[in-house]
## 1
Amino acid sequence: MKFTFKPSPNYRQPQSTQKIMLELTLGLLVVFGFSVVYYAMAYGASYAVRALLLMAVSLICGVGTEAVWCLALKKNIKDHMQSSFPWVTAIILTLMCRIDISFYALGVSTIMAIFFGKLVFGGFGQNLFNPAAVGRAIIFASFTGSVAADLITSATPTAAIAGHSWLLAIPNSISTVCATSSSCSSALVAAPTLLELILGTYAGAMGETSLLVIVLVGAYLAIREVIDWRVPVTYMGTLFVLATVYGLMFGQPLTYGLYHLALGGAAFGAVFMMTDPVTNPTSAAGRIVFAMGCAILTLMIRVKANLPEGVLYSILLMNMMSPAIEKLMDGNQIKTEKRNWKIVGIVAVVGVVATVLCALANM
Amino acid sequence: MNRKENFIAGFVKENPVFGLYLGLCSALAISTTLDNAIGMGLCVTLILTASNMIISAIRKITPDEIRIPVYIVVIASLVSAVEMLMAAFMPQLYANLGVFISLIVVNCIILGRAEAFASKNGILDSALDGIGMGLGYTFSLLLISFVREFLATASWTITNPFNNQVILHVGLSFLEPFKISMFSTSTGAFLTFACFAALFAVLKNKPAKKEKKEAK
């Protein structure tokens, strides 16, 4: 018999949580940098300064909340910060907001996201929900009117399209809704072309606009094994297929699915929020089911619910399901492969049926 | 436990909402404004005191096997009477509280006190317990609604339920742009409740911890 004396795998691995979070932060800053450059080029330097100030406010509020928490619990602030990463939440939250959000709204929601979304649960690693998503939900619930009046106030393409059951996204197709609706033309003007959507040269949430930049950063992070590639790939694949099914039922062209990927926070959420190792299942099969569930919920919320965006709430809902998925997919991953594929198949069938039912109900 | 301690217990140590987590459904749902909190709190106090007294009075002739149905009949009659009186004399408050007045019948505080206290103690003690617990409930509702109304509307308003005249209105208009409308919804109710419950737990556990330390 041969014994091997080596440290446990997690000690042998060169990657520590700190390194992973550092690379994730850099990736997020690249997305933010693109956004700042875009606003500076398209709208002027004052917009870029505003974006930077928003980020600063969110960072100060996020780090400040954790510092106060440490003081209240008499913990060492430096040690706590090194294992808590409040800035990641703050950066993600800022990137999910539009540039016209007021400083107050962003600051308060950052504080509440960190406190109620993370610290109360026991800090980093114990939170049930993605703290940044909690913060964005708080903004949705409280501060939709709290915007700076002197900036671009036209609705984002997501909001304009959501008003028409997500069907007017395609400027060169005449959908059934469009033929009868008089307000159709305004949505057509607001809807950017596919190329603009992919490059991200339109006004939307600061970090969510550019599909290209997010996919490139996501690919880099996935190669560096900072994020699990399965989650974004499964999510975007499922969303694309379901959206295509939905689009085909309304006679939309095959590119329709791309609009669902490029609009709103689909790509951003897939790369930076669904991959959060704390709030998604640990097993590979569990993560695939998690991502598929997110995609199904995203599409259903987009086409049926009275909300501008579905990604955020789909993430929060699936975060809640994570422990259940974990339990369902429990066991030796090699031995239970057959069962796991069965579960994935069932989820896929449920998704397609739900999409078809949504489409039938919208007809 | 003497009478005074018994009466005061309802505020912090055995506060029905924050200490015992009873009657949460109504407490979370109606604590949006101070008006609702005062109306609901006093309503529950009245019913709780009356039901405690009646149940205490009939405790010796109530067969043990059917005591819960007997309690429910007593409480339901009282609630129906109060509900009709409110509909007649305070229509606005009645409309605001809506279904939660009829739901006082199944409010756990009332049934809980009947079962735990009134069925074992004399009429005077039970009445005092009812008033104490009822005021404790009112006090908790006031705390929650005080925070929620201010955060959601940046003002406090107290109206006279009989003629709808505003008695007191404190509005900080410069804070108007900073209000957080989420606190008028159930999310805000849960957050406020959780913070207060944590605070009360700290208050409640402080003496116990001290004793433990001294014992060591």
## 2
Amino acid sequence: MRARVSLQIEASYSEPTRSANQVLRLTPRPFDGLHVLDWFVGVEPVATLRRSEDGFGNIVHSCSHAGPLEKIVITAEGLVETQDVAGVARGLNEKQPLDLFLRPHEDAEEIAAFAAKELGGEKDRLSRLHLLMAALHEKLNHAPSDAAPRPVADVFADGEGSAREIAQVLVAAMRAQDIPARFVSGLLLDGAEGAAFHAWAEAYIDDIGWIGFDAALGFCPRDTHLRLAHGVGFFGAAPRRAAISGYAEEKVEKRLTISAARQASWQIQQ
Amino acid sequence: MLARTADNIYWVSRYLERADFLARLIEASNRISALPTAYAAKQDEWTSVLIASGADETFPEHFDVANEGNVIAYLAFDPRNASSIRNCIEFARTNARAVRTALTVEMWEHINSAWIKLKSFEGRNGEPTAIDREALIGFLDFVKETSSLYDGFAYRTMLRNDVYYFSRLGVSIERADNTARVLDVKYQLLLPEHEPLGGSVDFFQWSAILRSVSALTAYHWVYRESIKPWNVADLLILRPEMPRSLISCYGEVVRWLDAIGNQYGRHGDPQRQARAIKRKLEGASIKEIFQSGLHEFVDGFITDNNGLAGAIAEHYLLG
Amino acid sequence: MSQFFDEMTNGATEPRPLYDRIAEWLRVSPPALLDSRREQAEILFRKIGITFAVYGDKEAAERLIPFDIIPRLLGRDEWTRLEAGLIQRVKALNMFLTDIYGRQDILRAGIVPSDLIFRNECYRPEMQGHSAPHDIWTHIAGIDIVRIDEEDFYVLEDNCRTPSGVSYMLEDREMMMRLLPGLFSQHAVLPVDNYPDNLLASLRSVAPPHCPGDPCIIILTPGQFNSAYYEHSFLADKLGVELVEGRDLTVRDDVVYMRTTEGLKRVDVIYRRVDDDFLDPLVFRPDSALGVAGLMGAYLAGNVTLANAPGAGVADDKAVYTYMPDIIRFYLGEEAKLKNVRTWRCREPDSLKYVLEHLSELVVKEVNGSGGYGMLVGPHASKEQIETFRQKLLSDPDGFIAQPTLSLSTCPTSFPGGVAPRHVDLRPFVLSSADGARIVPGGLTRVALKEGSLVVNSSQGGGTKDTWVLATNAK
């Protein structure tokens, strides 16, 4: 689908802050399922946005502001064309070996036991992944939120979590099964309630490559999933990380607008 | 120099000066409360000590009665009181440790030894009910000595650069604040209606005020007459030869801020504010001060002094 | 005691020639003299405030590391051998790190298993594809050395992150010269006091290329509650550089500045004593208040040099340690000059089986542990401790290695009322710079003060000794 995406993040501080530093992963990287026609990231007050590529191949912008500062507004917008490729993320610049994505997840004993139980004797890797996604979709209630994720064990015990929390649980479950798995952050193009950002997991299968699994929604990413970044866990793929000097509280508001892009048409004189 | 280093140096001085002041305050009040009832309005003494030391707000959270034992325990040894002598020395040492290398070896070793010695007093005097008066005097002497020696080592061993200036600046700002606090709490006693009538109980209050800023002997050298309340106020506010008077403190404040400004080649808000406060003191006479209200004058000074401390922090210490 | 190599007597009645004068001094000194020197040393150390914090021990928040006044001696010939081995080893460690974060030849050649590297938390994917300035990753390395006989030196552990202890090496020397000047002057002791100078020169040599003239060098400390804070302030003092905390720094447009009383000042080289995890809340742990937001961005942009480089910890992992002889051979085409202690990798099923069968004889260590925490010393462990470790090993074999209980050498050590042999190790400090490696002759000798104990870590009741490398040979 072709969509015009506009995301605005407004961070305001309870008292003027002396400085702020940010790292933004708000620029989608094209791959087989995604064509980026144009994309723009901006920040207000104006600051130099430096673009680089991180250790995973994500496109990163970083910037710093000197205070006193009461508010920062970040805008990411552009025109993209997505395709339903059954969740397969092919054509990215892969920089890291699979072993990195097998790092055991901390405090995931319960999740590992759950995964083992749910899978029974299923041998086929792809089927196992689908079973895991379905089982966790069943077990965990999706409560959209953009808050920083809690530890996986807490989310699992609670039975409810945001998309990013559920994605982390799924990653932990996949790794417990000795399947390379990673965290993906992105946006939903068909409108999201309660949260601007979405997240899912990707697992690796020989001969196919990385495939996305969205346990929050219960299906593999479609053309409604706009992929932004991936990492070992949430923090390596977080759409925005920010730190300020001082003790001010940060309040963040996000606004995501998506409009199905119209075909270009000639303007005609009335 | 690192802004935080300046901040730490400045606060080491402030805490040690405060500890010294608290020790003198307790000592002076101790004398009053030792007098027979006829000579002093006892019941208020310890409350006013709490107010002068800024501990009156938190004290009721921990004690019911403001009696001698409770107040001394709270002011001297209580870790729950942010400005207890114990905490002042502890904080001074923590600040010093954070910038150990900016201090001279003598200063650091002295303050570290004092901190170690503090622990030995704590063991014996931790209980609020039973204050051992003899041990208390030993402790208060130790505190005064700690501050004086630190000052002495600073004077004798430090390079005369910004590190030294910030250290001295801390002493002067804190000292001005302490003197002003005593004036603020005891100002009624200094008002004209308290005309001395031979052997008034107030005599002991006035001498206690002088003692708390170690000016009792100085008073007699300066005025060569018996203690009069307006002279006490004059001595503590306007006498440049009296090292704890407000005007004397501001002579120092301006001096050190100018030294800092000269070294950095830039004078700013702190320098301007300090000079303005000094000018105000220089232009005042004790008569006018009494006419327009001693309380208002001291109040205004405390606000100005705090304002300057804020400007110093903003300009130099936060970086 | 005959089962251990005693560095003074080597089991004979006569001392080794190297120790002639020490033995004589011990013979003629009345116990009271040693006692008084020891007490003097303690008073001095406490006065200067050389203390360290012990994790999990609130009562003794600041404790002295006991100092033993009997020096530990090495002959020049012994030192020369050791030095060559250390330089070789650190060179290989730096090449290994360059390779791991670059082409990864050693993994492709199958010398080191790739999962060992990438599943290790100390491997930092953020550094992949980046080279460290001058290909130096571990500017300051501390290599722990033990002896079990007169001939060989064994490496017990490599420390490539933020090894500490060098302040004790320097202060112990000062203390000896002050307390026992007579004994000191009888020996021609090679000096160590140029270490701070060497360190400064090494740090200057790795300043970013754009840096004009005099680089601004600083030491970054987690703060005064860190166990090694004394050392951080000591080094800042000796180097004549600012000791900063994270909150003293700010990053603007990929340039690091420190906050001074005169405004912001640009920083070029940071000798950081803050762990990777806490360096930059935008890249590593988001809850870190010790680091500097944006520091990694500045580092990757080449505007500041971090020593040691982020990610260097992947080389001092105890599991990678076991491959060091192969790593040295792979990069340098030489045999390792310093031996490795025989090590069983519990990740290998055969080894695991052996280890489980011999727990009561072995030392079992966590691959990622440090400082003697989470370590089992089989011969000294209770039945319950052994059982606890058996369970740990079974549930996470990858997390552990095992080594034989080493017969660490002993040195005479002074106690109230007497002198007795105690086990020692040695941590020399190797500096790598753009113009080569530097080591001062000596290091930190750590001594296990408890009788029979083999754990020399200061957090576990170890003490220190001055290490004298003499101008004369041991043989």
## 3
Amino acid sequence: MRRGAIATVALTWATTAHAGSGPWVLGQGDEQIFVGAEAQRFTQLAVGDGAYQDSVIAVDDGVMTFGAKLIGTLGLARRFEVEADLSYLYTYANEPGPVCELLGMGACKTTQGLGPISTRVKWLVVDELAGRPLSMSVGLDLRFGQTTAEHRERVTSLGDGTFALEPRVALGRIGTLPKGWWSIYGDVSARFPLPTDPAFTVGGEAAPGIELVSTVENLWTPVPVVSLGPSVSMLYRPQGVDFLETDFTEKDRFTALRIFVLEAGAKLLVRNDTGITGVLSVFHTVYAVNNPQDVLKVSVGVAFRDFARRRTE
Amino acid sequence: MSTLQTGEVVGGRWRLEALLGEGALSQVWRVRHEELGNLAALKVLVLKRPRLAERLLLEGRIQAQLRHPHIVQVSDVVRHDGYVALVMDLVEGAPLDRHLATSGPLAVDDALGMLAAVCSAVVAAHEAGVLHRDLKPSNILLARQGAGYVPKVADFGIAKVVETSDEPGRTRVGAIMGTPGYLAPEQAVDASSADARCDVFALGVIAYELLAGVRAFDTDTLDVSNQPQPPRLDTLRGEIPAGVAQAVATAMAFEPDRRHPSVRAFAEALLADRPELLARLDATASGVSLTLGTDPGLRRTVTSTQVDPPPPESSSHRATAYVLLTLVAGGALSWALWPTPAPPVPAPAEPIAAQPTAVAAPVVSVADVAPGDAPPADPPPEPVEEPAVANAASAAAETPAPPRPAPPPPRPTDPTPPPPEPVEEEPAPPPVAPVQQPLAAAVEVTTPVAEPTATAPPEPPPPPPPPAVTGTWRGEANHLPLTLRIHDQRGTALRAEAVVRTGPTDRKYTLAGTISADGTLRLSEGDDGLDFRGTVEEGVATGTYTAPGARKPLPFSLRWERD
């Protein structure tokens, strides 16, 4: 199931909801609905110096986020899939203190509302089922983050407020085990925020800059009912300024940051014969620059295959 | 419900002998004429409601117009104690759906012969301005005749009179009548818009079922247009000619404009390579000759000696009519139609001038019997357990037909046999499979003329049954984990679902195919989709598959896990 974007300072899209991960797609006419919830917390912000982490700032008593996620996926044609992703987030600071006060602009006020809305198309261009050694897909995401623009200056913001195009490429392979199978995939996408009106800029630079997102995941399914495996994700926004260089009077003070985040975790899936799969994932930030460095993220969810067809039968 | 009792006399002349079946609105009784002694079927409305009675009478009037050897004949209407009833031919035999449930798909020749007969009936009805609108296997009765069967189409109960008539249209706009899986999509939307192409669609679905052994559209919803078209017949069975497969596929098109414009056009496309079957399309009403036999020099003209129905109620002439009929035909007919456990008496060859000249129903052909060939020495095995009169099917027509119960899948005795012991150990017996009752063994072309024939040649041994393969099979397709669930097996016909595990997302494919007695397996998605070909042996299935985009066939291997 697809891994969403990693949290940034403004703690956006804590979307570990999973649907359609890897290069593989649903079969024609198949559909899947995923309903999930997640929670994450961070207390420390890693401040960057160039490409590296320079120091760490404790963000008072930390920031909590709770979110609900709904993802619908549909196999439109053989090897072609579409997906829509919707979330509702609630973010608050545990005990706003001096850092929040220092940041100003209501940095630690509680924020809730719709998170970025994403739609995606994915095309499986190379198919292992047709005898190829790997599967490969190309896709395009459209991220509508405008609902998060109003409070993007907060530490507790829900997103960067932009609309972005995100082309994506994924590669993967599956193999069999005596009673199950294994899978491994990697995907890379480039997120291009489109100019807003008025344009978001900080110091003359467009904010946020282009972002690169990548995930590698390996799942082992010793028996069909359970899958388990590690996952690593990366977010890199090369264009921007360091935390201490940003203009804290600007609304886009956080979206203007140069960012790097690496997080790792594990995923557990439990499925039955009727197309219902439970998902549990836990991730923790491993390394961060200009972003929270101790984010712990837990998500749970249930995916229903062919939900609509089941309801009409 | 009706308070009719066995032994009661209705209409002053029909004695109730046995209740054959009943539905929500009607009962069907076996009755015997008090004077003539002939048997008939009586369909009586069990509710005393004028509107339903009117509809039953309309059904009777419609069917009474149709005189055809392959249409169940309505001969009289009676009223009794406020109830209305129709008298019709008594058909001793099972409906086609029951036969298919026990025997699986028909041999191609059998199926085409059956379809030729049914199409001739529907063509005749259409040319008389009558649509059926509810064609389905349970409305095709297999009347036993000699060593074979005569298919008869029944239950024109919701037929719509196409031509203009004195009476206003009976079908309310928006009223939907019909059977899921056989109802044309446009009929499901508005029954009043039905035309001949609705019957074309139903006949295409029936043809598919006869040849594939499974329903084309296995659904309980009236509108089938949201179902996928089933795989072509020639992808399921290689012996089905491409022309036949194409004709059936065209008939089953969801858009009426893409189907054959008439049942005649469908039959001509279906039987293009079988002119001898196509010739039977016009073996219909009085005076038409039906050419039989494989010897071109041998032509027999057959007419019927169908008994005249009792004259319509007329108090002034009833007694006279009865006396005349009794003097002319009563004794011979009583002897001829006296009930026996054996099939009914065949009609004599010579025409009887005083009788109506409806052509005798030719037995559905499978293999034309050449002159000098004898019919098989033994009668065919009974396809049903009781000699139920198939007219009961019409009694149940008002209630939704339950889906045909799938025969319980036989359990393999041991799909994974133990390791072989040296010499003394016998191999595990093959899994039990449903016994196929090929209609070919039961149906042949015979003429009503009894000719002395030579000694019957020995019957070929029945083909061995195919292995039972229902259940879950796991393994791999190329290097991908594959789960194959075969959830329906009827004889050699299979329905299955393949699930290819692709990480967290599975891809599912709906397949249909066949398994032969030697274990040859074929499952296909149809239309350039996945296609599996292999063999099944002792719980292991191996072979190759092709997938869209594949440059060559790829290996697959599966092991049977469980039911």
## 4
Amino acid sequence: MAQSSSASDLSPWTALLLLAPLTAVMLLILIYPLGLTVWTSLYNGRFSFDAYVELASSTLFLRVLRNTFEIAIGGTLVSLIVGYPVALHLAAQPPRRRTAYLIMVMLPFWTSILVKSFALVAVFGNQGLINQFLGFVSGGTLNVPMMFNRVGVILGMINFLLPFMILSILGSLLALDRRLILAAETMGAGPLRIFWKITLPLSLPGVLAGVLINVTLSIGMYITPALLGGRQDMMVANLVDFYTRQTLDWTAASATAVALLILSGLLVALLGKVRGSAGLAGAGA
Amino acid sequence: MNELFGSSRVARGLVSSMAWLCYAFLLVPSLIVIPISFGNPGQIEFPPRQFSLELYRQFFTDAAWWGSTVQSLIVACLTTLATLVLAVPAAYALARSRLPGRAGLQGLFMMPMLVPVIVLGLGLYLQYSNWGLLDTTAGLVLAHVMLTTPYIMVSVMSGLSHSDVALETVASIMGASRLRIFFRVVLPQLKTSIAVGALFAFLMSLDEVVVAYFLTGTDSMTLPVKMYSSLRWELTPVLAAVSTLLTVLSLMIALGIIAMQGKTEASK
């Protein structure tokens, strides 16, 4: 064994040679700009934490931070409430049919976020499919604004988040030993009791991972609040853009970005603890 | 019988109606753009009251739309090629060497997946404005290489962990050079995982909007950036045609990837 692996092993120099180009690109295009962002937030003629002190006392930043948490947590909760039954439904299907349904669930995952945003406006907008229907039914009196406000952001958000939530819960449900349920049924437990005592507790790891993935993905959202929200629905990522382009205050933009980086770093670390490092792969995109 | 929520008909009915509502929510919006794209060119209309290809004509003849599409395709192709050339040898070196600090390097290659993309957008914007790389194709391709590396890495590493090391050992004992082993023994076994990673990287680059929005201007504007500003400021019906074309393309790529993954699993 030791012999066979040494024969197929690369010499350290060859390995270095193969790794060097990508490492150089990553240092230059990933680490350097991140460092530059931190630097810009701290150094403005002189070295200071002023930018962070200013952020902490800025009503705009605090309001945006509150929005971000409200939207991220609200979106995640809706995604959990909608996603859990879907995961149950998928888990109960025979494998072949499950694959077919899964493709439907994964479709938004493959679709450009801009296409999804446009499509959601076409369905939920003021002249969209649903409001046309409501207007038709009510004789033109009923129009529910569901876009360019908080509802719009949440709709866009869950359209993006649901596949991650569903897949995460489905993983737990499929790993669940079904003989437990059979045994409980044989012993006369009702469906509610079975769900409450067996299915739900055993699926909690998947729920927890799904929730963390959803929160992590949603706190950094930029496109959805910009396109589907109103002016009051600005999130942290939009504030970074606002400081960069509107007020040209790169120091404040960098400090905001660093705050977001730390926040999402904490969430990613937590997720890593919950799912092991392999689980992080699902948090991308 | 052994269903996860017991055998209650009410529970089952509730769960499946909830599930179908959700499938509809995930599916219908993307499908509805298709009939809109063949309808009234004057406004976004569903159900369409006329049939016309006018929106597609506008898309293919308007320099702003078609130009940014060509730019996106160029960027996505260059990105995919460059990432493959950089990441496949690096993944191979990570899998087949005992270099100290491998875990750290792997972490570095995976990191773009874990950093909020807006933070990378801002950092690159600050960097490129110093270096004069703003609004250049090269600058955008570099940024996309960084963003797509983790995905090609994941795919190729998993391919390598399934490939047969013994074949490499045999080739090495029979006197094949390292280079020859890599091209004749390793790469052929990685064909599928490289293709899957490449398709994924291509699609990601083609759809990437946040970084591109920070880094491009009028000279190098990509399709997603053009779509973003159109969604923001004018909401033209041409978007329906663009969306339909993009959805069909993503769907083809997704099905391609699923088919290839299915094939590798079946052969194992």
